[in-house]
Amino acid sequence: MAKFRDIINYFHPYWKLSVFSITASSIYEIIDLVVPYAIGQILNILSGQPLDIPLQQAIASISSFINYPVNKLLSLGVLLGLIFVVTVVRAPTQPWLTAWFHWDIAIRARRDKFQIAIEKILTLPLEFYDENNPGRIAGRIARGVTNHTWTYPEIAGQLIPKLIRVLGIFVFILLIEWRIALLYLISFVIILGFGLKELQRIIKQESRLDKYSENTESRNSELITNIKTVKAFATEAREMKRQNQRLVRELKVLDYRIHKGYVKLITWQKTVIQFCVFAILALTLVATVNGKISLGHFVMTLTLSSMAYAELEPISNLAEVFARRYSSMLRFHEFLQEPTGSDSASLLEAEESSYKFTGKLELARVSFGYDANRQVLQDINLLIEPYQTVALVGRSGSGKSTLVKLLLRYFEPQEGQILIDGQDIRTLDVGKYRRRLAIVHQEVDVFNGTILDNLTYGRPSASFEQVQEACRIARVDEVVAALPQGYYTIVGERGVRLSGGQRQRLGIARALLVEPDILIFDEATSSLDYESERSIQLAMRSLQGTCTTIIIAHRLSTVREADKIVVLDRGRVVEVGSHEELLRHEGIYYRLHSLQETGELLS
Ligand SMILES: Nc1ncnc2c1ncn2[C@@H]1O[C@H](COP(=O)(O)OP(=O)(O)OP(=O)(O)O)[C@@H](O)[C@H]1O
C-alpha cells in the first residue's frame, strides 16, 4: 500500500534545493508583512503618535551613522526606504529564488519518475499484463506523474509559504494585542481543522472516483483495441450505453459528493471568516478607543488580519486540489511498488549475449500451473537433441504455448527443471539466455518505424547482407520489393499496414537474424498460404545444423517433417515419435491427422 510518505519521497533527491526554495518563498511571504507595518508606523508619524521602540532605536542608529538629526523627515524616509526594498528591490529576485526552483524540481522529478515507470513497464512480470490492460496502466502513469508535477509548485511555492505567512501574522498581532491574537488563533484552528476533516472525506470520494475513471479508461482502451469486433457485432449502442452509465456514476460522485462538499465547505468558511473579520474589527476598535493600541497599530492589525483571512481561500483551494490528486498519486506509487518479475532481463546489459549453446534441451519432471489449484503442465519429461526440429502438437489448451513460456523463462516451473546443455536455465542470466533464443508468434508485433528497424529489432548490428539473407529465407524480399521505399518504408502505427501473412514473414526474418541457438515457431506460419509456407520450410532446411527448432502448429502438414513430434494432452506428454511412427501408433496424433486429411471425426 502506498502512503503519503511516498508522495514526499517522490521529490527526495531534490530535498536540499527544496528546503532552500521553500524557505526563500516563506521569507518573501513574511517580508510582505513589513509593508502594512511600515504604513501603520507612517500613520503614527502623521498623527503625532510615537513609533515602536525598536523602530525608534533603528532610526537613531541610522541618524548617527549618516550624521543627520532624528526628525519626521528622516523617519518617513527610513520607512519609505524599507517599503521600497521589500517591494521594488525584491521583485526581480523573487521569481528566480522561488518559482524557478519549484518548477525545476517538479520537472526533474517528472523525468526521474517517468524513467522509473518505464523501467517498471519493462520489468513487470507477464502476469501483470494479463491482468491489467494498457489503457489502465498508461492512464495510471500519466495521471500520477502529471499530478505530482503540478502539485509540487503549488504546495512548495504557495501552500507552505502561505501557512507560514498566516503564522507570521499571528506573531505580529500577538506582539500588539494578545486578545486579538487569541481570537485570530481560535478562528484559524476552527476553520482549518474543519477544512481538514472535510478534505479527508473528499480524499475518500476521490479514491472512489479514481477507480471508476480507471475502469472507464480501461474499457475505452479495450474498445479501441477490439473495435473490429465491436463493429462486426454492431454492439456500438450497447457499448455507448455502458460507458454512459460509467460516466454518470463518475458524475454523481464528482458533482454530488466532491464538488457539493467543497462548495459547502467554502460557504461555511466564508461565513466564519466574515464573522471573525467583524469581531477583530470590533475588538481592535475597542482597544484603540481605550488607548491600548495606537492608530498605526489599529490600521496594521486590520490590514494584517484581512491579509491572513484572505489567504484562507487560496489555502483551502490548494488543499482541495491536493486532495483531488492524492489518490491518483498513491495509485501511481502502488504501480511503482508492483514486484518486478524474476523473468526480467537486466536493463544495463549489452545487446550481444556472451552465451552460446548447442541447443540441447532437457525437461525433467516439469510441472507448472498459473495458479496453485490447477496444473497446466504435469510431469513433463522431454529430451531435445542439438539441431533437432521438434514439433509440439495437441488440442487447444493442452499446454503447448505454456511449455514454450517456460523455455523462455517467462514463468518458472513449480516442480522439475529445464536444462540447456546440462545447465538449469534458472541459474543463467535471463537476458543473456533469452538472447540466444528467438520466437515467432502467431501475431507478430510491428513497431512504428522502417521495415529495416523492425527486421533488426533483435540485432541492430546486423549487416545489410545478413538482413537480405534472412529476408530471402523468410520470403520478406518479395514484400519489400512491393513497398514504395523498400527497406526504408515506414510500417506500423503511422505507416504502411502489413497483412497477417506479411507480418509473420517479417517475424520469421527478425528471428533468423538473431542467429539463435533455439528457434521457436508458435503458430508462426498459420496466416501463410500453403505455397508460402512450403517455400519457407524448404528455405529453412538450409538452416539445419545451425539451431534447434521447436514448432507449435495446428496444421499438421507443417510438422510432418520434424525429427520428433511431441503430442501433449491435458498438460501431459502422451505420444512422442516421428510422423510415421505416430501414425502407426494410431493414437491422438493419428486421430488429429485423419481429421485434418478427411474432415471426419474418428471415434
Ligand atoms: N496467463 C495465463 N493465466 C492463466 N491460465 C492460462 C494462461 N495462459 C494459458 N492459460 C491456461 O493454460 C492452459 C494451457 O494453455 P496454452 O496456451 O498453453 O495451450 P495451447 O496448447 O498453447 O493452446 P492453443 O493451441 O489454443 O494455443 C489453458 O487451459 C489456458 O486456459
From TrEMBL:
<keyword id="KW-0067">ATP-binding</keyword>
<feature type="transmembrane region" description="Helical">
    <location>
        <begin position="272"/>
        <end position="291"/>
    </location>
</feature>
<keyword id="KW-0812">Transmembrane</keyword>
<dbReference type="Pfam" id="PF00664">
    <property type="entry name" value="ABC_membrane"/>
</dbReference>
<dbReference type="Pfam" id="PF00005">
    <property type="entry name" value="ABC_tran"/>
</dbReference>
<keyword id="KW-0547">Nucleotide-binding</keyword>
<keyword id="KW-0813">Transport</keyword>
<dbReference type="InterPro" id="IPR003593">
    <property type="entry name" value="AAA+_ATPase"/>
</dbReference>
<protein>
    <submittedName>
        <fullName>ABC transporter ATP-binding protein</fullName>
    </submittedName>
</protein>
<dbReference type="GO" id="GO:0140359">
    <property type="term" value="F:ABC-type transporter activity"/>
</dbReference>
<dbReference type="GO" id="GO:0016887">
    <property type="term" value="F:ATP hydrolysis activity"/>
</dbReference>
<dbReference type="InterPro" id="IPR036640">
    <property type="entry name" value="ABC1_TM_sf"/>
</dbReference>
<dbReference type="GO" id="GO:0005886">
    <property type="term" value="C:plasma membrane"/>
</dbReference>
<keyword id="KW-0472">Membrane</keyword>
<feature type="transmembrane region" description="Helical">
    <location>
        <begin position="169"/>
        <end position="196"/>
    </location>
</feature>
<feature type="domain" description="ABC transmembrane type-1">
    <location>
        <begin position="19"/>
        <end position="324"/>
    </location>
</feature>
<dbReference type="InterPro" id="IPR039421">
    <property type="entry name" value="Type_1_exporter"/>
</dbReference>
<dbReference type="InterPro" id="IPR003439">
    <property type="entry name" value="ABC_transporter-like_ATP-bd"/>
</dbReference>
<dbReference type="InterPro" id="IPR011527">
    <property type="entry name" value="ABC1_TM_dom"/>
</dbReference>
<keyword id="KW-1133">Transmembrane helix</keyword>
<keyword id="KW-0175">Coiled coil</keyword>
<dbReference type="GO" id="GO:0034040">
    <property type="term" value="F:ATPase-coupled lipid transmembrane transporter activity"/>
</dbReference>
<dbReference type="GO" id="GO:0005524">
    <property type="term" value="F:ATP binding"/>
</dbReference>
<feature type="transmembrane region" description="Helical">
    <location>
        <begin position="73"/>
        <end position="91"/>
    </location>
</feature>
<feature type="coiled-coil region">
    <location>
        <begin position="230"/>
        <end position="257"/>
    </location>
</feature>
<feature type="domain" description="ABC transporter">
    <location>
        <begin position="361"/>
        <end position="595"/>
    </location>
</feature>
<dbReference type="InterPro" id="IPR027417">
    <property type="entry name" value="P-loop_NTPase"/>
</dbReference>
<dbReference type="InterPro" id="IPR017871">
    <property type="entry name" value="ABC_transporter-like_CS"/>
</dbReference>
